[in-house]
């Protein structure tokens, strides 16, 4: 069995991997949902847009489900504290997600303009709202969240929903929304043609510009935000105890990792280069490469947030010593080991059959195709 | 202390959303195998009617599946949003099967369902059948892992409490996986799903046959549903959940409550058919009993005893008094991690920690518990008898009625006589809602029967909740009610519309009420 401290780091990487997998895969579906009302102007055009992701969105959504499950299994106290603390934010995401399974499946089953435009609105909300909320949540994590534990480790969140909507986290929300819109736009550009493709490219380039600007702005802003630093010695192999450490809040703490490991600067660089590259490749209609570049931007942006906070996962602003870190909010050694092996076996299989599914369904989705398959396409 | 109002609302929200989710799951779990059977016949015979059957029933399957997915996400969120302490306390064990379910099963199912619907023209026949089969395997594996998680709540094996991390931790993964309660639950629950899928196809096919529409299509569908339904109904009843009821105390408590068995009876106990339950005086005013049967069902033997409610309560009383010692030692240890004396005491009493925690519903400091409070906690350890007793009987009654219908239906299709027996077709049509009612009753018995625990003997329900304000719960509950009512209305509307339209909705030109023809007429 791998030793405990190694597994703790592996699980930080794995949670990051699942989050990035979610943003690349389900993220492009959400981006397509966000772009749907703007890129598809007629019912037929919208059906083309929806059918580019029709066969795949269901599988992609499982990245999100598995992300939640992995959090529950590997970082139970993070899952518990974050989900209950961000209660209304989670409810908003959940309810927005309601619109997708039913929206995709039910929309084109009835031939009625009001019915269809209602579901289109639902698909837009289901695509646009979750990325915004996730970005806002990350913005709050970077600032610390007001929660504390008692001696039974019952967590209490003392903030309010409105408190989450502060300027910095709204900016983080913009970063996240723009990132997934870019992801959806490049995908759409690859799978469509003609006027729909042209509009998707326009939308994606706009998103790339917003992403680059908001990401730089957030980076500069981050310098002046108080970060968190562990001041006590942590026994990484001991039973995890969230109350057994001292933590201070101080300006510039989120930059400490970059000073120690200058290589980490590659991550924000990747975010910016990826966005610029995606826009450039779209201009010369290299759509598949643009999708890859956009995915690179996703890795860079999420990686930057993770690297800045490491080893913190969810700092507490009201009781800094109770902040949740990679070392003390994890499951037991045995659970981490079992889940690691499960991930090692199943994730490659998932990648394999997902790729097969995309291969089977490859090619452009056209208006002619949708018209010829009225009753079997979405 | 945690507000009882908050606990009640959290339970109401979870119970309502879980039972709502389970309106869609059994149909998915069962119908997917009917699709596999129909498509297999198509691949073997090349007869296109079997392909159309797969596609048409697949369309209805898809309408149902969408809501299954929608409402399933709610449950995964809700452990964290509303049961935060539960998530912290048992996530080390409970989280693993949920995460594995996602990676091993739900991913497979969800990826394949896309190819099932959109891959007809892009895949060779055999490959498409493989896709359908993988979708079925994924769906059923998903049920397996969810029931492993749920089985652990009933019979928490393979784990131990750690005072350092203040939670339960996994010590034996395979014990959790091969938990006999989980295995029995799995067989029982998926079989109930197969019955649901079969009833759905049987009833709707009967309706076509009654109207003499799409007769060839409906006759074949009826036959598949009757055969699969008969096998599944037998499996539900014979391999009933009860095979797991001898294992572990939680299941014994449930059994005593659902049988209204106040006193331990000499083995082999009789089965109480109906009774006048008098909860106030802990007795039945009258009962109709069949000798021997209960003992045989419950213990699979003629000599083993099944404990009665009063005996269970006496045991609880002892465990609560030991639990008080455990709670005190734990609280000392939480303040002084290295207190050896407290640790020794704790190790001796920690098996009863959960019973000590039961008192926290009434007092913050367990030492303040008066005899009256302890008495209340003792009474809490057995769920209310009346709802358990009748819910279980209604479920079994419906199960037997369904078995009878499937047996007659199967016999009739063997004789190729189902079209000449309108009474059978009408009977099948009217039975449509029964599997859903039985499934919901089954969940009720399993989950309500575990109260006052979320994890039997380990974590009381009232401690498991998130520290939220009651207003949050009213708000989210209102949201769920609004969304779920609207979604159910939309789903039923589409389901009825397409079921009425029948295979013509595929627009192939081979059936009555063809969609393409109807549009031409409109134009």
Strand content of chain A: 5-15%
Count of the domains of chain A? 1
Helix vs. strand class of chain B: mainly alpha
Radius of gyration of chain A: 21 Å
For the termini of chain B, the CA-CA separation is: 68 Å
Contiguous helical run count of chain A = 13
Tell me the structural class of chain A: mainly alpha
Q: Biggest sheet of chain B, strands in spatial order?
A: 1-2
Uncertain segments of chain A: none
Helix content of chain B: 55-70%
Query: What is the overall shape of chain A?
Result: globular
Number of distinct helices of chain B: 19
Task: Let me know the average pLDDT of chain B.
Answer: 91
Q: Biggest sheet of chain A, strands in spatial order?
A: 1-2
Describe it:
The complex is a heterodimer of chains A (378) and B (523). Chain A has 378 residues and is mainly α. Helix content of chain A is 69%, strand content 6%. In chain A, a hairpin with a 5-residue loop joins strand 1 and strand 2. In chain A, helix 7 packs antiparallel against helix 11. Chain A is globular, with a radius of gyration of 21 Å. Chain B has 523 residues and is mostly helical. Chain B has a domain of 356 residues. In chain B, the strands form three sheets. In chain B, strands 1-2 form a two-stranded antiparallel ribbon. In chain B, strands 3-4 form a two-stranded antiparallel ribbon. Chain B starts with a helix and ends with a helix. Classes of the chains: A mainly alpha (378), B mainly alpha (523).
